[in-house]
Amino acid sequence: MFALLNVHLTGSKPLWQELVGPVLLAATAIAAAWIAARTANHRQQEQLDHDRKLQKEQLAYDREQRNRQHVRDAIDEAVKGADEATRAMAEFSTPVKLGEERRQINRATAAAYHGPDGPDSPGSKVVKELKELSELSTAVHDALLELASHSLRLSIRLGAEHPVVMTHNAFRVAFRQRHNILDKVALGSITDDERGELDETDEFASSTLEGFFAACRVWLTDRERDLDETGIASRLSN
Q1: Helix, strand or coil for residue 155?
Q2: Mean of the pLDDT values across residues 39-54?
Q3: Which structural domain range is residue 206 located in?
Q4: Considering just the CA atoms, what is the radius of gyration of the chain in Å?
Q5: Which one, of 140, 153, 141, lies nearest residue 77 by Cα?
Q6: What is each CA distance from 156 to 67, 74, 77, 78, 166, in whole angstroms?
């Protein structure tokens, strides 16, 4: 029996080995779990950072798109207002410039006319003509008020020194100068100097209007290029 016990004890592992083995296995498992968790947290943090960056870019992109749309709306309204003002000015300036001789004849005839003030009398024709000119002048004045409103809105969106704003203001000034001259000569004859002033303001208004349209086109082209260069839209779509 002692021999069998001695054999058993001789073939057994030391106690410390039996204890260390499971401890090492447990430590290895814990270390592996810790590394896996750390790696997972790192990847999760990277994903969160990536998502935050995309979210910031999305917000910036949305804000830029909204601002851009506000400016585009302001430009669209200003372009439409400039076109309407030009039409109103043409309707007013044409009878003023071309009807001068006829108005003088009507006035002279009306002054010498002593018959009934019927609808076809020279006096009635003069009154009707003056009323029409007054209405056309009022339409131009209303258009001027709209131009002032558009200039203010553009300056708020783009800043007072922006080319779109400056060219629009230049057109508005030329437009007002032309209206002032037409208003002054509408009820009388046009002198050579005044006709020259009308021609100058006409050319100035046309050139400033073209400058305004050109500045608008540049803004639209630049904004499209800026968005393309940032690459935000393409990243957000992927």
Answers
A1: helix
A2: 75
A3: 75-237
A4: 42
A5: 153
A6: 12, 10, 14, 13, 13
